[in-house]
Design brief:
31% strand; 14% helix; alpha+beta; Pseudouridine synthase
């Protein structure tokens, strides 16, 4: 993070709980709140620390970027943590994101298979690297094309850092409000990164039941309807 960055996480609501049982809790994380603590006491407030105030044994099994909003699952027990992490590792979890991107897409759907790697000279940024990058695959569908922007559904197969941001940038359509990768116009077009983890499906770690979670955002509903 830049030295000029001032962390001011939203506090209302303190936690938006979507679902809870003895093994896990599912929340709708707002944009601007860290999923896990950053370095230093000024970055201690985060989704995990808020949950741990009530459930001290709670542990993350995945994360969203600070600027990204949406569904996050946190394990409440150690056995559940291991079982849930395994589901993410073997890609049995289904994730669906919604994003508002710049411009007019040439195709209404497609797949992006472009490897990514950390940009060591500009951390925490990532970059495309065809030689040494790790495999990264995203399926996309245009839900609504507007004059200068489009609402797209993104279904990542892999879970690389900044994958969705970079894959849309690679197509020439940066996500609006992206302080890392958007050009001036796309950055100015939204007050926040317009990327939202709208839906997530996984198996309940104890009984194996398939669970589905959905969350609305401040710019789009989980069903993909724009909020204006």
């Amino acid at each position: 993070m830049s030295d000029l960055f001032i962390y001011q996480p939203p506090t209302e609501p303190w936690l938006e709980v979507i679902y809870q049982d003895k093994d896990l809790i599912v929340l709708n994380k707002p944009s601007g709140l860290l999923t896990n603590p950053g370095r230093g006491p000024h970055l201690a407030d985060c989704l995990l620390s808020r949950v741990q105030q009530q459930y001290p044994l709670a542990q993350l099994v995945h994360r969203l970027d600070m600027a990204t909003s949406g569904v996050v699952v946190i394990a409440l027990r150690r056995k559940a943590e291991a079982a849930l992490k395994l589901q993410f590792a073997n890609r049995s979890v289904s994730k669906r994101y919604l994003a508002m991107v710049w411009g007019t897409l040439a195709q209404t759907s497609g797949s992006i298979d472009v490897p990514l790697i950390a940009d060591s000279e500009n951390l925490p940024k990532q970059k495309v690297c065809l030689q040494t990058g790790k495999t990264a695959v995203t399926h996309y569908t245009v839900l609504q094309q507007l004059t200068d922007r489009a609402l797209v559904e993104l279904r990542p197969v892999t879970g690389r850092s900044h994958q969705l941001r970079l894959h849309m940038l690679h197509l020439g359509h940066p996500i609006l409000g992206d302080a890392f990768y958007a050009h001036t116009e796309a950055l100015a077009a939204a007050s926040r990164l317009q990327l939202h983890a709208a839906s997530l499906q996984l198996n309940q770690p104890y009984n194996g039941e398939r669970l589905s979670f959905n969350a609305d955002s401040d710019f789009v509903t989980a069903a993909g309807t724009l909020i204006v």
